[in-house]
Amino acid sequence: MNRVQPYFAELQQTLARIDQKPIAQAIDLLHEARLAGRQIFIMGNGGSASTASHMVCDLAKNTRRPHWPPFKVIGLADNMAIFSAYGNDEGYDSVFAQQLASLVQPGDIVIGISTSGNSPNVLRAIELARAREAVTVGFTGFDAGKLGSLVDLHLHVPSHCIEHVEDIHLIFEHLITKALRDYGG
Question: What are the residues whose beta carbons fall under 8 Å from the beta carbon of 100, sequence distance 6 or more?
């Protein structure tokens, strides 16, 4: 029995159903943020935290070009001391929002990654970001949950397979990074 081919076949089918327009909009949005010196905050839980950290690294390092400003990008899942302090003292639902509260400015970009779209700590941070007039972006899967309708820009993976959703979120991240590195060139 072939255990590999069905995974690839389903992944290819999911990729074919993705709306590419929001991805292109995210590239332009992030490029404008770079030029304007706006901060970009990225968050997620579990595998999505890993994708968020990966995106922070790639935006900071792999998009550098002569005569263009670097990205000001911050991973909200990356500082374990502050993450666990907020989680312990104020509850896990507040770990991202409390970090944003002292940092986010109007016009900054806040990216929430949630396969289900229903992670309470991501939703709370997105709500705070919207109240502070930041631009919000969501990466979701499944039925998009609450996050899909809460954000200004929604990148959705139409799949109920968590592995496919996480795979494609990483593809989004790499695609966006490469496009930003090559932007205008």
Answer: 41, 76, 110, 125, 128, 129, 132
